[in-house]
Every structure is written in C-alpha cells, then in structure tokens.
Amino acid sequence: MIVVFVFILGLFIGSFLNVVILRLHRQESFVKGASKCLFCGHRLYPKDLVPFFSYFYLKGRCRYCRQKFSSQYPLMELATAIIFSLIFLNIAPNGDIALLGLKEIAQIFDWWALAGFLLIIFVYDLKYYLILDNVIWPALVLAIVVNLFLGFIWLDLLLAMLIGGGFFLAQFVISKGRWIGGGDIRLGLLMGAILGYPHILTALFIAYVLGSLLSLWLLLVSKKGWKDKVPFGTFLSLATWLTMLYGQELVNWYWSLFL
Ligand SMILES: [Zn+2]
C-alpha cells in the first residue's frame, strides 16, 4: 500500500525535475517564481499542474493558448514514479517500513536523490548535449558522504572514482577532446562515487553495451552516422542507475551465460 504513496511522490518529484531542467537551461532560479506556460506566458495553476494526469486531461495542450506541450513532461513524471517505486521495493521488498533500520532509510533517500540527479543528467544531455557541473558536484558530495556513512571503504570509493574519471580522461587525451567532453570525465568520477569498486566496471560495461546497441540501430535505420554527437551522459546515467539497483544480479546473470 505504501508503494502507492511512493509512486505518487515520484510523480510530483518528476514534475519538479522537469521544472529544474527547464530552469537550468534558462538559467533561472528553480525555487522562486510561479510556473508559466512556455508559449503564452499565462500563469499555470495547481489544476494545470497535476503531475501526469493534467497532461492527458488537457490532451497535452496549454489550457489557455492550446499550444502542444512536450511529451517529455509526462514521461519524466512516470519514469521518476517507477524508479522511486523500484528503489523503495529494492530496499524494502515487502513494503514494510517498520522493519527498516536507519541505514536502509538513509539508503532509500540517498538513492532517490541520486536517481533525481541521474534523471536530470539523462534528459539534459539527450536534449542539449551537455552535462552540467552544478548537477554533478552536489551529487558527488552526496554520494561520497552517504556511502561512507553506509559503510563503504573509502579506498574502494577512491579507486572507483579514479577508474571512472581516468577511463574518460584517457579517451579525452587520446582523442584531443573530439570523442568526449570534460563533463564525461566528471560524470565518470560521480559514477565511481555512487557505485564504488568493482561495480564501476559493471556500469562502464553496461554503458558501452547500451551505447553500441543504440548506435548499431541508428546506423541500420540510417538516421545518424558515426560522426554525429553521441549523448554519452544519457547512457552513463542509465547504466549507473541499473548498476546501483541491479549490479550484482546483472553480473551473476552475465557469468551464468558462460558457465
Ligand atoms: Zn499557453
């Protein structure tokens, strides 16, 4: 039952993340100011802002000027709600919060917050081909502090950050900055701080499998050539989230294919 509340919370957080992405892009404060329609500037009221449902109720259009909203908004809200529920059920499988200790509760909030940062990186890099430093640094500090509290060994975290950052730094140096940007290096550091060693390796592997599959598909339908920009941050954030939740299961499954 409580997972229903978690799902609804996720819808609202997803709605907030949409606002954060929009206002980061327009370099506005995302805590101050009322929500306005992007097209006509009409103030939006709570009845226009019910996450997920108002999009369908209004048939994806502004109530005032009838311009179409991006389908990113309901998709983001739904994705956040599903991810929040999966995280909650991963840590509290029977949905009973009375059985949770302080560390489990800290982990739920930590993973929710990190999933929020990763969702912003995912969408922002896909839309604008940019990984923002003011998203990376707070996430990095949060990941390190909470992981140390949860009992990670600091040397494992440091090693993982060196591997994650170093992996992209090496490619940056070899390609003279043509394949990847500085944002990918800093995202590599963050991946290490979130996952620790050895799961940083799992995440890098998953990211490259996802990236290769998508590139292959894009080549086959000939929408994009190799020279086109690839939003690495999108693959990396998805791979980080998958590893965060299912890293051990994915490793076990992978080895079972060969044994
Ligand atoms: Zn409007």
Explain what this protein looks like in three dimensions:
Helices cover 68% and strands 0% of the residues. The mean pLDDT is 90. The chain folds into two domains: 1-100, no CATH class; 130-259, no CATH class. By secondary structure, it is mostly helical. It is globular. 33% of the residues are buried. Helix 1 (2-25) crosses helix 3, helix 3 runs antiparallel to helix 4 (102-128) and helix 7 packs across helix 9. The structure holds zinc ion. Zinc ion (ZN) binds next to loops.
Unreliably modeled segments = none
Query: Hetero groups bound?
Result: zinc ion
Relative helix content: 55-70%
**SSE class:** mainly alpha
| Sheet of most strands | none
Give the overall shape.
Answer: globular
Helix count?
9
Domains counted in the coordinates: how many?
2
Query: Please, what is the average pLDDT?
Result: 90
How far apart, in Å, are the first and last alpha carbons? 40 Å
Order of helices and strands: HHHHHHHHH
Gyration radius from CA atoms, angstroms = 20 Å
Number of strands: 0
Give the tags.
about 260 residues; 2 domains; binds zinc ion; mainly alpha; globular
Question: How does the SSE layout of this entry go?
Answer:
Blueprint: H1 2-25, H2 53-57, H3 72-91, H4 102-128, H5 133-149, H6 154-174, H7 182-195, H8 199-220, H9 232-256
What would a concise description of this structure say?
This protein has helices at residues 2-25, 53-57, 72-91, 102-128, 133-149, 154-174, 182-195, 199-220, 232-256. The protein is an all-alpha fold and 259 residues long. The chain folds into 2 domains: 1-100, no CATH class; 130-259, no CATH class.
